[in-house]
Amino acid sequence: MDMKTLLLTSLQALSKQHTLTTLGDRSSYLGASDIGTCPRKVIFERLHPGEHDLATLLRFQRGHMAEDIVANAMTAAGYDNFDRQVEVIASGATPIKVHIDFVFTSTQPKIKAILEIKSVSSLPDVPYGSWESQLYMQMGALKEQFPDYTIKAAVLAIDLGSGEVGFFNGYTPEDTMYAGLLERASTIWTNYQFMLIGHPVKPATEPSPLCGYCNHLTTCPRFAAEEVPELENSVAELQELQEKEKSLKNQIEPKKANLFQIVERAGHSIKVNGSILSKAIRFRKSFDISRLTAFLADQGHTVNDFQESSSFSFLEIKKSKAIKSATTKKAA
Predict the structure, then answer these.
(1) Which three-class secondary structure state does DSSP give residue 8?
(2) What gap in Å lies between CA 131 and CA 133, rounded to an integer?
(3) Which of 126, 146, 238, 246 has its CA 20 to 30 A from that of 88?
(4) Using one digit for the tens of pLDDT, what is the confidence trace for 283-306?
(5) pLDDT tens digits, one per residue of 5-46
């Protein structure tokens, strides 16, 4: 068994055991994170559960690591007033169990503070809507169980790769929001129960940037449609960042060249406040094509005999024909 297969099979088993131990049978209830995400994805993950790929499993492990890091840091700082993976059952006919990463409790004054940990590959400027829905669901359920406590909540986003953190604080329970989430949960659960007995239900779809991680995207009717307008903001943000990247590159390269020229002419490192500018040299090997061609010719071969084609994937964004046509008519 190769290392990649070993990691995949072992982490799959570990993930199933961790879910069973901490969350139980997820097909028997809705969690707080389910209620704020795409209803179709939530239902289909229960109806047709699949194996997670290695990338997803590694993200899960990254999330567990982030939670452990926070717990260790809090303990080292002298905080012992928190509980981890706190389970709270929400009221109503819909089976809802919320699992809260951290609940900090103060008895004087009586406060319970939720801290939700999110492990990310890049920090968002503002919390995602699904994060906030999860918080409001958690706060509402916790408030029901502890009505005499003041409830607060925050999200701590951690990028383990870059070492950056984002703290989004100041959340308090919203009764209207909680009622809306309970109603949404009821609809999701009712549709799920109908589909379990074979009733033809088409759950709502909510396209988002997270659709790329959904195992049921290929059968999703939303992506069979010609237009997916819900992704407009994501595409616009990407295009805006790409334009900024081009502009920044045009500004960065001349400045780098000027400073490098100074260091090279000086012949030694230069200290500028807290930075040290120096000339770095790295080596890389390359083929002497003329000698290689001559050698291969002696053996009755050419370089082309040893070349292979390979493909790679990338995202290409073009203006649609409809937009081009409208632009042309407007110009005319």
Answers:
(1) helix
(2) 6
(3) 126
(4) 888 888 889 899 988 889 988 888
(5) 998 999 999 988 888 888 888 889 999 999 989 999 999 999
